[in-house]
Design a protein that fits this description.
By secondary structure, the chain is of the alpha/beta class. The chain contains eleven helices and ten strands.
């Protein structure tokens, strides 16, 4: 009787072990292992299996020399954001404007950016390489050179997303300025990298996606348009504009957003943020939240005393940081 029961128990134990192994294997799969090469199909970001994808992670602050965000451009930060926060994406905000930027210190900024990109690749998460400027049309040659460099170095990998213009200003016309700039930079990237996603900035700090929807870039695949918002300032009116663009077939990517006001300060607006998150989930959009810094402002994720490498206990996170950590950690990928 005992012997017979033992024989029956063995297959059950084997099955249980295999089930547990399968569970842990699935639990440990990385974002890029799961999704592979991304694409835009019918206005939606999809993975290698043509399934809709919604990625979530933080954005680094400007990389400019001497600015408060540069200290977080390290492998350790990316690893901890990936492991501790379960982020599926990180955004590299390479400063291409103002003092200390890539335009005046290319080697310094390129080193910082490269460290983050390669850490993202090592951790098998996606990475947005962002030309972080409000005046990119002034520096087309430099932007083309930079993105060709990035495409030659990393364009063969599925991890890479290019963001070619962070936030054009309100008086920077989509039709005559932003779109021609974008076409030129896209052409330079596509000469090297035929497939990886390219994000195109839109007029008025990447809010006027409805204007872009009326005159989109044509005959180029895997293009999405940047939608930026700060919940304390941008509300239902901007969501309606975003919905118009989506209804017109435009692919949107929320490459920068904040819980506070548009100047990066103020308290977390929980009510409007939750409305935005519901909109993002409903439309299966991907998003990167602002910002990995210790700057003394509402949008900073870290307190002044926080570690510059992590991991970070909650007491080293601001109110905004704790809220964003919870959103990103529970987003799933």
């Amino acid at each position: 009787m005992t012997h017979s029961s033992s024989k029956g128990l063995l297959p059950k134990l084997v099955l249980l072990m295999l089930t547990l192994l399968s569970f842990f294997s699935l639990a440990n799969i990385t974002p890029v292992e799961k999704h592979g090469s991304l694409a835009i199909e019918n206005g939606q970001l999809v993975n290698q299996n043509h399934q809709a994808v919604s990625l979530a992670g933080p954005s680094l602050f400007w990389s400019n020399n001497g600015w408060s965000g540069e200290e977080f451009y390290s492998k350790e930060v990316v690893t901890n954001i990936s492991k501790q926060w379960q982020a599926s994406i990180i955004r590299v905000a390479m400063g291409a404007d103002f003092k200390g930027s890539y335009l005046t210190f290319p080697e310094d900024n390129l080193l910082k950016v490269t460290q983050v990109i390669e850490a993202a690749i090592d951790n098998n998460i996606y990475v947005i390489i962002d030309w972080h400027s409000h005046h990119a049309e002034r520096d087309v040659e430099q932007a083309v050179h930079f993105f060709q460099l990035m495409a030659k170095k990393y364009g063969h990998l599925p991890h890479i997303i290019y963001e070619i213009y962070n936030e054009p200003l309100k008086n920077t016309d989509w039709h005559s300025v932003i779109k021609p700039y974008a076409i030129e930079v896209i052409k330079a990237i596509r000469a090297i990298d035929k497939d990886n996603i390219i994000l195109v900035g839109t007029q008025s700090w990447s809010q006027d996606v409805d204007i872009s929807a009326k005159n989109p870039i044509k005959n180029v695949k895997n293009i999405a348009y940047s939608l930026h918002f700060y919940a304390g300032t941008h509300r239902e009116e901007l969501r309606q504009k975003a919905q118009q663009a989506l209804d017109a077939g435009l692919a949107l990517f929320v490459s920068e957003w904040g819980t506070v006001t548009a100047n990066g300060d103020g308290a977390v607006d929980y009510l409007e943020t939750e409305k935005w998150l519901a909109f993002i989930r409903k439309n299966k959009l991907s998003h990167c939240s602002w910002a990995l810094s210790r700057k003394n402002e509402g949008a900073a994720i870290f307190t002044a005393e926080a570690s510059i490498t992590g991991p970070w206990p909650d007491e080293q996170l601001t109110t905004n940081g704790r809220y964003l950590k919870n959103i990103i950690s529970n987003w799933g990928y």
